[in-house]
Amino acid sequence: xxNPYSRQEWQRLNLACQGLLDAPTDVxxxxxxxxxxxxxxxxxxxxxxxxxxxxxxxxxxxxxxDAAQARGEIFEYWSHAAAYxxxxxxxxxxxxxxxxxxxxxxxxxxxxxxMREVLARIRAEGPLRAADFESAKGRNNxxxxxxxxxxxxxxxxxxGDLMVLRRDKFQKVYDLTERVLPAHVDCREPGxxxxxxxxxxxxxxxxxxxxxxxxxxxxxxxxxALTRELAERREQGRLQSFKxxxxxxxxxxxxxxxxxxxxxxxxxxxxxxxxxxxxxxRHWFDFDYLxxxxxxxxxxxxxYYTLAVLWQDSFIARLDVKADRDKKLLLLRQLxxxxxxxxxxxxxxxxxxxxxxxxxxxxxxxxxxxxKLELCSDxxxxxxxxxxxxxxx
Length: 393
Description:
Blueprint: H1 7-17, H2 27-34, E1 37-38, H3 48-54, H4 62-70, E2 74-78, E3 82-86, H5 94-101, H6 112-125, H7 148-159, E4 162-168, E5 171-176, H8 177-180, H9 192-207, E6 209-210, H10 212-215, H11 223-235, E7 240-244, E8 247-251, E9 265-268, H12 278-285, E10 306-311, E11 314-324, E12 329-337, H13 352-365, E13 370-373, H14 379-384, E14 389-390
Parallel strand pairs: 12-13
Antiparallel strand pairs: 1-3, 2-3, 4-5, 6-8, 7-8, 9-10, 10-11, 11-12, 13-14
Helix pairs in contact: 1-9, 6-7, 9-11
């Protein structure tokens, strides 16, 4: 069939599915609607997983995530990366766990003896961190230099014998799965087609439209099953598809785009669910985003930790941020405006009040009392914000 909606309508549907237009009720609802929330350790500002939830839950507190995990509403495991997942999806983590138990490799060689010893300690002593196991080598230099006990803990976690009970100062606290997993959770391993259906449901639920490649993002050996399941659902009338740019895009015809968007700015971190698939971001939003954390400083164009600035349905800027927690100051180290920030006459579009509100909200979320713009691609805008901005009480 032909494409039923305009690009702008698909953008609106995507934003609605992402929980950016109507706020989820709580953390569990947000994680369920998104399918996952990626965990990341970068700490120049609030960590990515907390920021993703803050972007969708206006009154979000970082303790809310811990509480949802303690209640057994979400759990930590591997999606395309380390993530918080809905507890209802636990059974769909079993394929990877069983594959690892049966010989697939994660990051390093399996040390069965060390794993038995680690497991025995946790069984006897209760929840433990990697730091609770002594290391003969002293301080390690990265994941490739982990002490044997830490490797064993991670392998037991990936294979499913251990779960993360909570995090203490971002360190995983492990316990036996049988002591963490709620008793009501379904633990039946899904079949190939059922797993494909799960990937389809999760992706379209979170984005509204997608290709097989996008649904299979960073997962191996699933595209054939996805293709079969999508074709069957089309025959049943549950899904439809259209061709665009040489690719087939799938969608649920029961979901329709909202009629309008609020006059709002969202600051989205590099791991936000809306922007994590860069090719998809370019296709639907015409925004070419690159995380420059791993780019040498001299070669960075936009900054170390750059947020994507979304106004209504357009990405209008990139904003490099750093929270100076001691001074309670949010540094806007570099604001780079996109062409979409200007109208045909070269004037800034009327997004500044919404941007100021978004920055103020983000500053408060980072425990800051004021913000300061250091560099800006627009000289007039830099002059406009030449003084640091104190937040209203």
